[in-house]
Amino acid sequence: MILYILVMFTLLGSSSQQDLGFVRHVSQNFHEKINSKLEQQILSFHNQELALRAYASYFGRADVNLLGFKKLLTGLRDRALDNALSITTFINDRGGRVRFPVVQLKDACNEITKSLTSYEILHPSFAASGRTQPHICNFLTKSAVSKKRNPADDNDNSDDDTRDNWRAGIYALEDTLALEKSINNGLINLAKEATKFSDPQTRDHVENFLDKQVEVIQKLAEIITKLRRYQQDDEYILGEYLINNELES
């Protein structure tokens, strides 16, 4: 009787994992909640990759032409994609399942907006711009660029004038820093969850990302600090040009 109960318990457990889409003859000590948390992290990396791809394209525009910033953002974009692929492979190795929801730039913009505030990246004590929104990200979303114009406004260059006043380099790096800190926070929480569910493999895999996260956050913060030293508009244009050349070399 006891043997029968044990067999039925094992079969029911396997059936439950199969219903979840798990590979039952591979999965071991891999909880559904951990799988879901990893899926969320993949989505965060894909949102980050899309935002950085959009930002890099912005700096490649002929009317922006800051190729050093484009190079930096492209490298971070590639890293975000590699991280997403790494976790995808890890879930497959653990016998889990991966679902891929639709990724939209507006979701990344919303995450940047939230993170700019929650991580005090635009704190008045060290951010002089006074902005509260990710201007570049909003500009690049479909709703922003597809807005119908009144034919009577064809000679109105207010949008261009507004962008001319942007400090594009520092805006982009502040937004990127916000995303990196959001990603870092997600990874820390994921490592805690893995410990809670006694899953050392997941914890070790996630912690491998954290050292690089610290390096990237530090690098972005250093460049932002350099840019913030140029307070006046004329000074900032020169400072942005010099730092762009450094990043391009």
UniProtKB/TrEMBL annotation:
PROSITE patterns: FERRITIN_LIKE. The keyword Metal-binding applies. GO terms for biological process: intracellular iron ion homeostasis; iron ion transport. It catalyses: 4 Fe(2+) + O2 + 4 H(+) = 4 Fe(3+) + 2 H2O. InterPro entries: Ferritin, Ferritin-like, Ferritin-like_diiron, Ferritin-like_SF, Ferritin_DPS_dom. It comes from the Eukaryota. Residues 28-231 form the Ferritin-like diiron domain. Fe cation binds at residues 180, 213. Transmembrane segments: none annotated. Residues 1-17 form the signal peptide. Belongs to the ferritin family. Stores iron in a soluble, non-toxic, readily available form. Important for iron homeostasis. Has ferroxidase activity. Iron is taken up in the ferrous form and deposited as ferric hydroxides after oxidation. Stores iron in a soluble, non-toxic, readily available form. Important for iron homeostasis. Iron is taken up in the ferrous form and deposited as ferric hydroxides after oxidation. This is Ferritin. It comes from Biomphalaria pfeifferi.
